[in-house]
Amino acid sequence: MVCVFLVPSDVTERMTARMAVMRKTVLNYIFRGACPPGQPSCPSTPSTCDARNNCSHCEPITLELCMNLPYNSTTYPNYLGHATQSESSVSWESSLFPALVQTNCYKYLMFFACTMLVPKCDSHTHQRVPPCRSLCRSSKERCESVLGIVGLQWPEDTDCNQFPEDGPTCLLPNPDVDECSPSHFKCRSGRCVLSSKRCDGHMDCDDDSDEDNCGCVERGLWECPGTRLCIKHSMICDGFPDCPLLKDENNCSVCKDNELACSNHQCVHRTLWCDGTKHCSDSSDEWDCVSLSEGSVVTVFRTAVDYHVCGDDWTMDLSQLTCSQLGLGAPASVTLVPDPPSVPGRRRWLHVHPDWRQRNGSALQGLLEKRGHACFSRKRVSLHCTKEDCGLRPAVRLYKRILGGRVSRPGRWPWQCSLQSDPSGHICGCVLIGKKWALTVAHCFEGRESADLWKVVLGINNLDHPSPYLQTRGVESIIVHPRYNRAVVDYDISVVELDREVEVTSYVRPVCLPGNGQLPQPDTYCYITGWGHMGNRMPFKLQEGEVRIISLSQCQSYFDMKTITTRMLCAGYEAGTVDSCMVINRRRALLTLSPHSRQ
Predict the structure, then answer these.
(1) In which region does residue 150 sit, left (phi positive, over 0), alpha (psi from -120 to 50) or beta (all else)?
(2) What sign results for the dihedral spanned by CA atoms 255, 260, 263, 267?
């Protein structure tokens, strides 16, 4: 059973997102054993270059962050207490300042940061040249308050009074001089990166601007015909449509007239389609083989055509198997209904195999056989299953544990939905908890409280193109938790009433809600799912990954400026995997617990 615990997420405000990145960057340094000066429990770092050990000599600047300066040599120690460029390159300041630059708090912040990290070396005296006091003060006055938002302090070694007033003995930026050398590209944030990294398909600028206005070819990607959408070459003919109108999956199979194409474009003889045995390597020849036509009549898609099941020899055990295969509850009623005499042509029939009990088949289509065109009773099987259970995924089988995240397959999370509002499109992730109800975060509706502005999209994996399983519903009403407070981001949950019930299918169905007292325990595992951007202008595909539950006390130790309440859940890994530390309350994700997941 798969149970939902919290469904967070929206398109976070740009400033908040940048601050979160900055906060996380500093935390990563703490995890590695380093510590930003000025933070609690941070020991001072002794310098090997001091009054007794004068290391002054000019050396070329190699710190990539600062390759855009009007000077090209530096000397150490610098103004942050670093003894070498290598030490500067791994310092917390070398990560903090670029993140702070993205907030656009001060135009010349990066220039100031570089004069601190790699101070200019005077070619005559081999002494460092300081920044001017006015540059330091402007940087601090405009950017220190931004650091305060995430509980960080301005670097303690940057006391502006230590620097001289404006004059020839200190450095100021020249607004008329391009800050990047001819061999570098200037990011919107002010950072310079090597020109060879422009349009290489990798985000090298802090703001991704090195990948702006790049054609697909320049970025080493494939352009979807008729659009400017770029996808990786490995996505062509991979069985997953990524381009509008499925154009990346066209002309991928060269199957004979008597063959059918698998989802991965292999070819299988049509007589083997939906026979109960896997012939496609991805098993797609056995997908969606059984359905209930006309609401209740058992129908099997054999050899690419629909067959009805003859009621002769039908049993209650087969009814149970069929309801289970469809992801529904136990059979409520089974009747054999006469075939209408008005049906034109000959009816296609499948019969129960005489030794079906010995065949050990888990799918109905493997227990049936063709015996000409006759059915002795000429009665079809009409099956009504009980109310469908929650948390079932009949479209796919679960895969082994996934670390690091991956694109999710259609039908793997049939309760995942997208809250959308024109003209923005996707705003928040949500989860279907009933035929007419969805769950999401409360902060999704800030500034857009009217139900008329919203719609819920279900049965979709890729937000960029239509899905054959897609269902769209309007929003009847929005119920935000009465104790939700945006200032502290607690009770961040809401319920959405749809304008009409969804049609329950293998790709759209509700999730289970946990019972009273059913809480995930630390060191157990859960899945996070949600839509993440696959690079610049890449398709929005549903992502999934497995993360470990972290105790609230351990989580609180990571967020000293934020109160972690019992209404929140922490999950994550060490830096570099799915997420280094994530509070399930502010992310674009759906959290499900799966210790005993149904297949």
Answers:
(1) alpha
(2) negative
- Residue 84 maps to which CATH number? 1.10.2000.10
The yes-or-no verdict on residue 12 having pLDDT over 80 is no
Dihedral class, residue 509 (left if φ above 0, else alpha if ψ from -120 to 50, else beta): beta
Checking if the pLDDT of 40 tops 60, the result is no
Tokens 């994530």 belong to which residue?
582
CATH number of domain containing 313: 3.10.250.10
pTM of the model: 0.44
List the domain range (segments joined by +) for residue 456.
410-498
Nearest-CA neighbor of 221 among 445, 535, 520, 541?
535
- Give how many domains the chain has, as a whole number: 5
Helices 109-117 and 93-101: angle between axes, nearest 10 degrees: 170
Contacts of 8 (CB under 8 A, 6+ apart): 429, 441, 492, 584, 585, 586, 587, 588, 589, 590, 591
Residue 208 lies in a domain: no
**Beta-bridge partners for 309:** 350
Record the tokens describing residue 580, joined without a space. Answer: 């280094």
DSSP labels, 516-562: TT--PPTT-EEEEEEEEE-STT--EEEEEEEEEEE-HHHHHHH-TTS
- Per-residue pLDDT reduced to its tens digit, 159-209: 899 999 999 999 998 876 655 655 667 787 767 777 777 887 677 787 788
Indicate the DSSP class of residue 484: -
pLDDT, tens digit, 9 for 90 and up, residues 525-574:
788 888 855 444 444 778 877 778 888 888 888 777 677 888 888 887 54
Percent of the chain with pLDDT over 90: 29
3-state DSSP assignment of residue 319: helix
Q: Are residues 333 and 314 in the same domain?
A: yes
Any idea what DSSP says for residue 359? T
